[in-house]
Amino acid sequence: MRIKYLVSLFWFVIVFLLLSEFLPAQQTNLFTILPLSKDTINASVIKENLLVNSLDGEFGAYQSNVQVAMSGTGTYAFCWEDYRSGTREIYYQFFDKFGNKISDNTKIYSYEQLANTSPTISANQNGIFIIAWAQSNGLVVAQKFNSYAEKIGSLSYLNESIYDEISNLSIALNSDNSFVAVWNQRTSNNYNLIKSQFVYSSGGAAWDNLRTLNGSNSHYNYLSKINAVSVDGNGFFFVSWFSYLNDSSYIYLQKINPDGQLSGNRKIVSANPGFLDIKSPQISFVGNEIF
Predict the structure, then answer these.
(1) pLDDT for 148-180, tens place per residue?
(2) Is the pLDDT of residue 120 over 70?
(3) CA nearest 49: which of 7, 101, 8?
(4) Which of 68, 19, 66, 28 is nearest to 48 (CA)?
(5) Which CA distances in Å does 193 have to 122, 220, 230, 269?
(6) Torsion angle, CA of 158/282/284/263, rounded to 10 degrees?
(7) Cα 4 from Cα 288, distance rounded (Å)
(8) How far is CA 243 from CA 92, 133, 251, in A?
């Protein structure tokens, strides 16, 4: 009995050592037989050690205010502020739906030292992307891309140079490649306005589509830093912001038609008379409904 026990123990040790030798090399194959969908497997690949930026140049360690968007085709892109050259520039990086980089970190534009604000990015279901930012002279600009990180057309200029402070820039891209950009504009008398611009699918911006969305009696109006504008499945754009008026706070919503015209008047979504604690609304959609 003792000999039989020792023989069994011997073969157990041998099998254990063999498995220890070969199991690490076979783990990848073991995972492929799990009952996971293709999308689940792709998502797990994308999450694994995803490095977006590269630390190039003497000043490359300071890269911040990153934004990301994913298109309906599964491609996605990042944009951010980058100081690798010693000045504030806008860089971007595209990925395919499997998490592979498309090209390298690329500088989108450089205006002058410390000239560019934090960028914003949006994508639609057809794989088209748009990145927008503002320059120190108050000029808001945007550039479209396809899913291969190739520029579509030239820069779109969304306003005139005014030297007002621009902040909280947000953008929504429709399926026909038209878009609406919104931003806060701080005037010389310290009023904060809500500005919007509609740009046609061709890339042209009409100055009569540059609008102030807040009321003329409301001087302190603010967009959320993200998701201040969205577009639904029918091409209608929606903008939300909050305002302070007479020691009270309000959240407003403005609908914009697919042709860029305002759809009725702005609506009060929430009001808090006598208090200033309503702020930072965000907006998105599910199907053709806005939430």
Answers:
(1) 999 999 889 999 877 888 999 999 999 999 999
(2) yes
(3) 101
(4) 28
(5) 23, 7, 19, 18
(6) -60
(7) 73
(8) 33, 23, 6
- What are the start-end ranges of the E strands in 110-164? 120-123, 129-134, 140-145, 151-157
89: helix, coil or strand?
A: strand
Token pair of 249, please?
């706070």
CB 172 within 8 A of CB 122: yes
Q: CA nearest 146: which of 81, 187, 214, 94?
A: 94
pTM above 0.90, yes or no: no
SS3 annotation, 215-246: CCCCCEEECCCCCCEEECCCCCEEEEEEEEEC
CB atoms within 10 A of CB 112: 11
Instruction: Single out the residue of 242, 227, 245 nearest to residue 280, CA to CA.
Output: 242
Q: How far is CA 289 from the centre of its chain?
A: 21
The structure tokens listed for 94 are 């595209």
Q: Are 110 and 87 in contact (CB under 8 A)?
A: yes
Spatial contact of 239 and 290, defined as CB atoms under 8 Å apart: no
Round to whole Å and give the CA distance between 194 and 182: 7
Residue recorded with tokens 């604000």: 117
Domain parsing of the chain, residue ranges: 41-157, 174-204+219-291
67's enclosing H/E stretch is: strand 63-70
